[in-house]
Each structure stands twice: as C-alpha cells, then as structure tokens.
C-alpha cells in the first residue's frame, strides 16, 4: 500500500482539480498581458512608418541610428519598439545582413553595468563576466559585433527613470562605441521616455544632438481606438461570443480618460476573471465595473453620504436601471422613469427635467456617472448614462443604506 496523502495536500489537489475543471470565458489569457506583442499594432501604422524612415540608413548603408519614443503609459511605446526591432531584424536577414534586437527594461536593469551585462549575455549567456567593468563589457560587445560582421539595435525602455539614477553615460558609450577607434558604429538605439523635454534636459549637448531630430511622440488613444485594440485581442484571448460588445465599449470609454491601452487590456482581463469567479459564460458590463473598482477604487462612501437627497435618489435610479437591463448604458429618458419610481418609493415629488439635469451634471463632476451624447439612432437631445467606476449592485446597496439613515 502507498503512503497516505496528507490531508492538506489532498485538499490542495482537490482545489486545483476543481478550479481547472471549471468552464472559463478565456481561450488564452496570456494574449492580454503587457509583454505580449500582437502580429499587428492597431492604430500605430504611421508611427511604424516614421520609425522605418529613421532607421532606413541601417538597412541600406549599415549606418547606426538613434530615435526617441515618447508618450504616457499605455500608448504603445514598448510594443512598437519590440515589433519594429523584430521586423528590422527580418528585413536585414533578407539582405544577408545580421542584426540582433535586444529590449532592455531600464527600471529592472537599473545600472550601467546591468544594461551592458544584459547585452553581452545575449551573445554569451553562460559567461559569468564577474569583476568586469562597463568599459570592458562594452569592448567585448563591439569586438564580437565586428568579428562576426553583425549589427545591434537596442531599445532602452524607461530610460528617463534610469538616467535620473545614473546620468546619460550609457547613451554616450553606446552611441559612440566605435567612433574613438575610427570604426563604423554597429549599435543603434531606440530610447523610450515619457517626456521629450525632461529626457533631453538630462543629456549633455553632444548626446542630445544625436536624438534631437529623431523624436517620435505617441499620442494617447481615444475611445474608438481603444475599442479596436481590445476587439483585436478578443479572438485570441476569449472564447467566441463570450464578451458582451457593450462591455468592451464601456472599458474603452473608461480607459480613454488616460488614453491607456494597457489599462483597457487589464480591465478586460480582470472582467473575465470576475466572470469566471461568478461562473458566468459571458463577460458583462457589471463584471467590468467590478474590475475597475478593484484596480482603482475611486468611489468613497463619504461622497455618497454628502450628496443632496435628490442626487442620491437619481444615482439610485441610474444604478437600478443598469442593474435591471444588465447593460453598460441607460438613456436619460429611461433614467427619468426609474427616478420617478424611486421618488414614489420615498414619498417625494420628482424634480422637473431642468433641475434633474443639474443633479445629473453634479453626479458627473463627482465621478459617479459618465454622461455622453447618445449618438445615431436616438431622437432629440437624449444622452446615455453609465456608472463605470463601481458595480451597480454596490452603488444600490450603499445608497439604500444612506437613505435609510
């Protein structure tokens, strides 16, 4: 007879088997992770074209180049640099030229020695390089490139953070690695930073001049673009038909405040996790609200308590209407009807349309609701209302508590 399985191990195994046996809305959740680069970058064709123009001399004349990508978090700086690096590598191979691409996260490799060590380890991963200084590491790297007639494109991601700790020396060395020897520089660099002005300010004049004319700013994504980005990932990441279209639209609207595709993808991933936890076969707007509340819990109970009485009634009406419909948005006409019902429950006369609209605007200022034009297909000045920051079931419960006091 085999040894008895300890009770704790048996329970762990049961939990594992139970969880793995559950149905899931996901097909491959890894397609939503930040380090995944899709085969096509949505809404970044023009920026990719500009990068190609900047680095054309590398392909045609074997000349090194430098470029600076700038923009806020989630605008695709990392993705476009990684995609471009791999495409340039492939294009060079088509011309019988050897080029490697290395992406360095300078927040992780946050010293000059760590950056150069990552580069030399790319070619000799088993070599310890213990005790070697930066100059020797760089010397070994350029010697290797020259000996094998190879070229290298390096992306230094979050370089602004790195330079605040270490200064700009790593850039000076990489961009002038061979010039002092009278040799052709075989190392090209893509620098990634949030702000053009702040980045250039940290550079000495000679190094600054090498980037000044090759700055590529990436603008924030709007709601339509974020919708396209999320929809592109759905086919690979989720089972067919498992994500409600209004869920995507609401997530895109939420993330568009920051123009952040990374946030949008995290929200759809967390929404899927919430749906799985609740054993739902579809990812609905309420799952997205819960996901948003988990990431950035922005609605505080004190805000709900301090609202005017009819503002509370109106917010309760919006929450109930969205809860009943299970949709991301409610039209203002639907909200007014729900508000009238709530007023009747509390023995209050409903406010007139103008006064009610003033209260709706106040709820928007407090970040409790989002009000947008209704778009095509609706008459008059009808607007659509959503609650993107918290589950409507939670909003309803908290308002009922406050009203009961």
Helices and strands, with pairings:
Blueprint: H1 7-21, H2 45-61, E1 66-70, H3 77-94, E2 98-105, H4 112-123, H5 134-147, E3 150-157, H6 159-166, H7 169-175, E4 187-193, H8 196-201, H9 205-211, E5 215-217, H10 223-237, H11 245-255, H12 261-277, H13 285-295, H14 301-306, H15 309-325, E6 330-331, H16 332-345, H17 353-365, E7 370-373, E8 383-386, H18 392-403
Helix pairs in contact: 2-3, 4-5, 10-11, 11-12, 11-13, 12-13, 15-16, 15-17, 15-18
Q: Count of DSSP E strands?
A: 8
User: What name does CATH use for the topology of the largest domain?
Assistant: Rossmann fold
Sheet/helix structural class: alpha/beta
Determine the number of helices (DSSP H or I, runs of at least 4 residues): 18
Helix content estimate? 40-55%
Strand percentage: 5-15%
- CATH domain class of the largest domain: Alpha Beta
Domains, number:
3
Shape from CA axes?
A: elongated
Largest sheet, in brief, is: 5 strands, parallel
- Mind telling me the CATH superfamily name of the largest domain? P-loop containing nucleotide triphosphate hydrolases
* CATH architecture classification of the largest domain: 3-Layer(aba) Sandwich
In round numbers, the mean pLDDT is: 90
Order of adjacent strands in the largest pleated sheet: 2-3-4-1-5
Name the helix and strand elements from N-terminus to C-terminus, one letter apiece. HHEHEHHEHHEHHEHHHHHHEHHEEH
**Unreliable segments of 5+ consecutive residues:** none
Amino- and carboxy-terminal Cα gap: 65 Å
- Rg, nearest Å: 27 Å
